[in-house]
Amino acid sequence: MMSFTDYAGVAGLIAATAVAIWMLRNHRTIAPTARHRGAPTLRLPRPTRPERASSRR
């Protein structure tokens, strides 16, 4: 006889499998759009007038 925790474990495994299959099936449609959503860049902001910054010595 299975206890309540056994049923909960089996239901959790089924749910995790269903979510994994759903994510793998939707991976191809989501991946190209996620690339263009504000990817972090390491560029520093440019000074607005570099000639003014060099003449302040």
Descriptive notes:
It contains two helices and no strands. Helix content is 63%, strand content 0%. The mean pLDDT is 76. It is mostly helical. The chain is rod-shaped, with a radius of gyration of 26 Å. The chain crosses the membrane at residues 6-24. Keywords: Membrane, Transmembrane, Transmembrane helix. Residues 48-57 have a biased composition (Basic and acidic residues). Residues 32-57 are annotated as: Disordered.
Short description:
The protein has 57 residues and is mainly alpha-helical. Helices cover 63% and strands 0% of the residues. The protein is rod-shaped, with a radius of gyration of 26 Å.
Beta-strand segment tally: 0
User: What percent strand?
Assistant: under 5%
Radius of gyration: 26 Å
Give the assembly state of these chains: single chain
Averaged pLDDT: 76
Straight-line distance between termini: 85 Å
Number of helical regions = 2
Query: What fraction, in percent, of the residue positions are helical?
Result: 55-70%
- Tell me the structural class: mainly alpha
Q: Looking at the structure, what is the overall shape?
A: rod-shaped
